[in-house]
Amino acid sequence: MAAGVFALLADATRLHLMWLLAREESDVTALAEAVGAARPAVSQHLAKLRLGGLVESRKEGRRVVYSLPDGHLKRLVVEAISHADHQVSGEPWHD
């Protein structure tokens, strides 16, 4: 199960989408604009994440809104991005 989660997060676009969703729920149009990708491509990435259980979706009228299903995934993504940021910026590591 954990290997499947990491496999899905290994794609840069999917990781970016997860990071955005860790901050707030959003729809495909806003996510596509934020990652600078075509809406159909973002929809395909979100479908993979949904099938893998990493995101949830709900309808609000004609919009489909995506969110993270639990705090574990949010913390995982935030920590992974923070780790990478420390490597790039040279900031000291936390205990």
Q: In words, what does this structure look like?
A:
By secondary structure, the chain is an alpha+beta fold. The protein has one domain: Winged helix-like DNA-binding domain superfamily/Winged helix DNA-binding domain (Arc Repressor Mutant, subunit A). 63% of the residues lie in helices and 13% in strands. It has helices at residues 2-9, 12-23, 28-35, 39-51, 71-89, and strands spanning 26-27, 56-60, 63-67. The protein has a three-stranded antiparallel sheet with strand order 1-3-2. Helix 2 packs across helix 5 and helix 3 crosses helix 4 (39-51). The radius of gyration is 14 Å and the shape is globular. The mean pLDDT is 92.
Order of helices and strands: HHEHHEEH
Q: What's the mean pLDDT score?
A: 92
Radius of gyration from the CA trace?
14 Å
Number of helices: 5
Structural class call reads alpha+beta
Main beta sheet, described? 3 strands, antiparallel
What is the fold named in CATH at topology level? Answer: Arc Repressor Mutant, subunit A
Overall shape: globular
Second-tier CATH architecture: Orthogonal Bundle
> What's the CATH H-level superfamily name?
Winged helix-like DNA-binding domain superfamily/Winged helix DNA-binding domain
For the record, give the distance between the C-alpha atoms at the N and C termini, rounded to a whole number: 27 Å
Q: CATH class, please?
A: Mainly Alpha
Order of strands in the sheet with most strands: 1-3-2
